[in-house]
């Protein structure tokens, strides 16, 4: 128990270090947003460039006066109160952004992760167990294909086939805007229909990757004595595959999964651009491109915390999965 | 392994392969077939409806009253929806205050109106909130319509116009360079008093949208002090307060008002009390998010969007047209040119004869083909006047007197040799000191069409004998780097006339403004008569001359200077590719109609004007 | 002439280090196929550009032509030969991807092994570094790096690509090491007094290898995609023959997804990358058998 507390303490310290690093890092990023932003406005609103530039300058006035260290202190003290800060440009609190935009991202990505991980791991185990079977080259070919196809191409193709040509699924959005949100069947059905394409794209793209990784890890385990011994003892093949090989081989994958789960908070640009799905990725992108320090800090803090705690959970999970591993603090 | 597991895994594998198999080849089949099917369906519906429903129903009802009375279960009239694409800040960053960042978004032209619209191609004025205008020398008087209401029901009066201009002062709006004050002698008259009269009054005023109703923004407008700089007190504090004002939706006077904003959709409903509401035949406008071009192409093909203007290469345009046979394409100018800039601060670019030589070595037509097929050709001159309005501003005499920079590599070679350049053993050029030439061509990484052009230019230059590399730079880093003069060759905007089509805009930027600063334009250059011309003076005069003939002379002078000193090499004139689909909306003006030029700088602006004039209606009505 | 003991020894040595492994790896059909594929790529990268001419001048009329004798894989949006572009791009693509994967693997293994093996404070510090690399976004880091030094050759390119991407692998290695270090053979090795060096290289590394091998190919493939990102950030000069960039332009700029006639143009870089991964994984399959004798049937 004490160990876990110590680990949590270390995690918090890590977050603090990373937050501080990010604070100073983002301010060192080169580039001047104003001109680019002005150009964007000109094409959208038909104003003259001079007008747009002046307007953008008037919007971008922030934190120019306080010395850097003072800003840092006020930022940290705000954090301790649970305030993740404010977007300098949009003047919304980061907390509000997270509450409004995050749930959809989490919904879609967690389902996608679960599906792709589950399918991948099962496939990978089968591939390692039956090294000579046809499953191996088949899945490897599938994996290579999805690996070579960048996410956005897969998604775009799915969009074209199922939304433009076949019209089986909706093109965009999280749910039909005419249905009021609530725990009603029409709403849930709409949500699922709208999530079908993004989840399919994600799963199709990533399942094979998990499969290959699992296979690689499992193959390493296969040569072990206990496998041979289990066989000699006459245990059922399936039991050996899952309980002996699977459990031992899944360890490095749990690591990656934890990182993916933690990283889920960063949103998926793919899903949001191709399927116009609401999510937090848009805000991450805006923060970076517009050099919105407030938004950047808040969002990336949340992301870092998410990843670090996911890793901590993974570490704790190891000691559960593999009793030989001591949870060290 | 048990059979069951094997079977399950096989099924899973096969299933995932089937689901996932994108197989581009089947797509070939898909694209062909539905074209035929859809066409039939649409035509049928249209035919049916073309027999005016009212007539068909009325007659039978008159005779057959007793019988099947319920012949008229006309399905509740489908709301006439207009579907477009655009961008906006996602909630919770979205709000309705245009004075703070993140507001309004794509709804802009649908909810707000200017006093009048100015058609760039013809100079025509289309009244909107103004009933009549009187252009005097010291003041510009506008008489407002008396039947205009804001979306929340309040009447629109002169005080609202005054408030708008007051707040625009805080944003350093360009109009305030010329404006002294805004007077409101009565509720429906506005007098814009100039401190510096300008011949460009009409287009500048047409660019000001009325976005600040006094009953919402009055408390800030009242406090603005136009005698003090916008970043000094009390103005500074007002701006800060103003940027914290976050109404849920914008309040405007336009024919539509915003009712729903989500991350995936923006829905506007018709504003029933609009003064031209009778002309507007649409009940709803639905705007889809414009995430990137590929997705918008998909929307256009699927008929999810009736109108959009993505920059599209030729073949994809053909594919969209094939998929939606009733789609048409208008190509109004976007009032800008894509161009190549040389850093005149460094050798050898500082020598204008060198620049001229190189200009002959570049095949501008090829650049256009690769980058933006539908753009206008600019392959003769470099005079910084948009080709689409060249006739209006430049006389034939002047054009004849200008050097033509056609693609002639032999000529380029000869000119270089004259300057002392020689060709080395490897076929590459050496400067008069014997040093090899090696260049880097930069462009903003986010403009993918410019990246293509950049790469093509680098290939052309390399082929000519000057090994060049294309290096895109992240947008936010690119512009400041160019302004700092840290480049050799770069893809830049050339003649940019954004806002309204007047050469003054373009020359202002080329000689004095950001473009000039980037290429290192000197303060004076020799004019057509051999005299040294002060460029700033020239531009200022151009912007303040009321005499048309005089103005034209100044423009011609500036054009001569830009061309003969080869300041910048444009290679195409950007055209907005206005896709519009007759299958869903009809009444569009002909593709050559000057009304389309309103789209330059705000595609929806053209839409709204067309709607308010009563031109656009849902197809089949 | 009788065989000297030296030549016998030499023959045995060569047999053991080259011939035997080769035989083991290639006995499996798949591994052999993988090896062939990789050799073809190697050939393509080394002598391909010398043999096949590349004309990057654009020819709009010739765009999107179907495969023919003149253009075995058709032409791109500018009328340029796709096969020539793939072959010319292979040199940079493969060398950069290989180096990136190499650096990533080395850094990740180093961090992961030491963190897992040593534990305690060392683990805490190294894990902090790993977490930092995982959670701090690469975008600002890359921009800052780019403003500090210029990438001029494949070595620096590979280094920059790997510098922020080794986090996940490091953690995976660490978790494997955590599990392995409690094992009997490690205890035995310790008891026998075999040093850390021996434990790391002769006991732990071979067990981690199969996972690393597959991950290596994966990282290579990821590096190709990431190099496109670096080009768009302006850290490296634009290369129109980079497979990832060809794909990006095909979809984004040329809208090739919507054009049946552009199928070969879109598929070519994808298939090239796919074959690379396929070859790598198949070959790794054979490597498994080499490193883990129990798997040999």
Structural key phrases:
heterotrimer; B: alpha+beta; 20% strand; globular; C: 297 residues; 12 helices
What can be said about this structure in brief?
Chain A is mostly helical and 329 residues long. Chain A contains 14 helices and no strands. Chain A is 74% helix and 0% strand.
How would you describe this structure to a colleague?
The complex is a heterotrimer of chains A (about 325), B (about 625) and C (about 300). In chain A, α7 (about 150-165) runs antiparallel to α8 (about 185-220). Chain A is built from 14 helices and no strands. Chain A is mostly helical and about 325 residues long. Chain C is globular and about 75 Å long. The model of chain C has no long low-confidence stretch (mean pLDDT about 85). At the A-B interface, α2, α3, α5, α6 and α7 of A face α1, α2, α9 and α17 of B.
Layout of helices and strands:
The complex is a heterotrimer of chains A (329), B (621) and C (297).
Chain A: H1 2-28, H2 33-45, H3 49-59, H4 68-80, H5 94-129, H6 135-148, H7 151-165, H8 185-222, H9 225-232, H10 237-249, H11 251-263, H12 269-274, H13 281-289, H14 293-321
Helix pairs in contact in A: 1-14, 2-3, 5-8, 6-8, 7-8, 8-10, 9-10, 11-14, 13-14
Chain B: H1 3-20, H2 24-50, H3 53-63, E1 81-86, H4 108-111, E2 113-114, E3 116-118, E4 125-127, E5 130-135, E6 139-144, H5 158-170, E7 179-186, E8 189-194, H6 201-206, E9 209-210, H7 214-221, H8 235-242, E10 256-261, E11 266-270, E12 284-289, H9 293-302, E13 307-308, H10 314-323, E14 327-330, E15 333-342, H11 352-361, H12 364-371, E16 376-377, H13 390-393, H14 396-401, H15 409-418, E17 422-423, E18 429-430, E19 439-444, H16 448-464, E20 468-473, H17 475-483, E21 489-496, H18 503-512, H19 514-519, E22 524-526, E23 532-534, H20 535-544, H21 548-564, E24 568-575, E25 578-581, E26 585-586, H22 603-612, E27 617-618
Helix pairs in contact in B: 5-7, 9-10, 11-15, 12-16, 18-20, 20-21
Chain C: H1 5-27, H2 29-46, H3 48-51, H4 82-118, H5 120-135, H6 138-148, H7 154-163, H8 167-180, H9 184-191, H10 196-233, H11 243-252, H12 263-291
